[in-house]
TrEMBL record:
PANTHER family: OXYSTEROL-BINDING PROTEIN-RELATED (PTHR10972), OXYSTEROL-BINDING PROTEIN-RELATED PROTEIN 1A-RELATED (PTHR10972:SF96). InterPro entries: OSBP_sf (IPR037239), Oxysterol-bd (IPR000648). This is Oxysterol-binding protein. Pfam families: Oxysterol_BP. GO terms for cellular component: cytosol; membrane. One of its GO terms (molecular function) is sterol binding.
Amino acid sequence: MNGSTHPQLPPASQSCFEPQWLHDRDEPFLHRRDRLPEPAEEPKRLGIRDFIRVDAAIIRDLNLPIVLCEPVTDMQRRGDFLEYVELLHEAARLPAGSVERLLKVTAFTVSVYSCVYRPFLPFRSPAGETGEIVAPDKGIRAIGEKCDDNPGVNALHVEGRGWVLSGDEKNAIEYRGLYANIRPTGLFRIDFHDKEIFSFNPLVTTVQHLVVGKAYIDHYGTMHIRSSLSSLSAQVKYGEPLFGASTHKITGWLMEGGKRQASPALHGRWDSKLMVSWGDGSKQLLWQKNPPYQHPSRYNFSRWVVELGTESPELQRLLPPTDIRRRRDVRALDSGRYKQAEQERARILQRLREARAARTKPHEPCWFTLHPEVRFGEGRRYTYKGGYFENRELARQGKGDWDGCPDIFGDGPGAGVYA
C-alpha cells in the first residue's frame, strides 16, 4: 500500500479442500429469513416490583422478566460469533506460519467480540441443549452443546473451508447490582488444513446499567493469539471502562521470544474495525464491522443473527429434540408474544427442575467427550466425538429419529428427561 515494502496479503490459492457438504444446494437453511416477525404485542413496562424480581432472579436462576431478554439462548449466541468466518477462509489460503495468517486470525478474534454487543440477556440454556448451523453458502457447518449447567459449560465445533474451530468455556456471572461481569474460562483452537494450530482465550464481558438507564456492553482483558508453527504471537488489549464510560478501544502488537515487536502495531475498536500500522507509516484495514441491518429490530440484531433464527417445516424435521428451535418460549418471544413466552418459559423451567431432581448420575453430553484431566483454559476439556451431521443426514433421509437425545423441551413431567 502506498508503495510500502511490508508483507501484503497474496492472492488466494485455490488449493484448499472442499468437503462435499459445501456443495449441498438442497440444504433447507439456505432459505433463510431476512427479518423478525412483526411483534404481536407491545412489551410490558417494568415497575419497582419487577426491579426487585430482577435482583432476586439473577442471583437465583437468571429467570429475568421477558422484556429484558432477547429471543436467543446463551448456547445460540455462540453462533453469533461466526458472522465473519470469511476471515478464516482467507487465512486458510495463506502460508502456514506467516505474519499474514496470524493477522487474519487476530482480526477474526476481534470480530468475535464485535458480535457480543447487545445489552438484552439471552435465555439460559439447560444441559443438553444444542444449536446447529449448516450453511454451505457461508462455508461452515457447526454444532454446539451445553455440556453442563453447574457450572455452565458450552462446547463448540465448527468446520470451514480448510479449518476447524473448536473450544469450550465455563462462564461465571458476577452480579454487582447495576452491572454484571461475565467471566469465562476456556480456550478456543483453530486447526488449519496444513497442520498449523492457533489458540486464543476468551475475555471478560461487562453489562452496564443492567436494570436502570441505557444498558451497554464492554469487554476487557488481553487476548493472546498463539501459533503452533511460528515463534510469533499476537496480543490484543481491550480497554477497561473508565469511570463507567465505555471506550471500546483496542490496541495490539506482535510478540517474538517474549519481546514486544515495534512493528506492526494493531489499533481500532472492537465494535467497528481493526487496523494495522507498519513501520514505514502505512496502514491497512484488517477487518470492518458490517453496517447496521436495513431491517432494524428491538434487539438490534445483525442480519446474520436474524438468519440464525430461521425455522421451516423442512428444517424442523432434521433437528433433534434438544435443538434451540424446539424452544417454544424463544419462538414466542421471537414473534413478540410476551405473555406466551413467559408462560412457556415457566413451564420449561419447571420441567427442567423436575428433570434435574430425578437425575441419578452426572449429565453426559451427546456430542462432546469430557476430558476431566484437562483444566479449563489449558486445553480442550470437551472435544467433539463426531456423529451429529451423520445423524442429521439420516433424519433427512427418513431413516433416523435421534435416539439417545433427551426430550428437553417437550410436554409433561420432567422426570426421566436425563435418564
